Amino acid sequence: MKAALELLVTLIMRFEGCRLTAYQDVAGIWTIGYGETLGVKEGMVWTQAQAESVLRMRVAQFLLGVYHRAPMLWLEPPERAAACGSLAYNIGLGAFNASTVKRKTNDGEWQAAANAFLLWNKAGGRVVNGLTIRRRAERGVYLSA
After folding, report:
1. How far apart (Å, rounded) are the C-alpha atoms in residues 37 and 51?
2. CATH of the domain at 114
């Protein structure tokens, strides 16, 4: 799990970036740090250390949630869990749980699961270029296993 956790932290840092002042994302959700939304309100300000600490804690929670929902990942290389964790961190564990990515992963259908990452490139009902790029990268990490 440690390898998956470190890879997942790297993925999230790459795609979320870090902003130390609360802002509204493309869907209008208040966000801070590396994409943290839990309890975030307008006007919040964090330190870099706080952003990194919260990221590591939340990433560990999401990774455990992914393993719980897709137990097949315990037997797979860490890249698959990290890619699924990055997706779940971005779309939420509930959406991940209902996803074709999770279902196909649990069925051992790696190519179909990888292709399903590409379906999650919308925010507010419209395609977002940054999400398309992120999903392609997650798909690539998933398939690199």
Report:
1. 12
2. 1.10.530.40
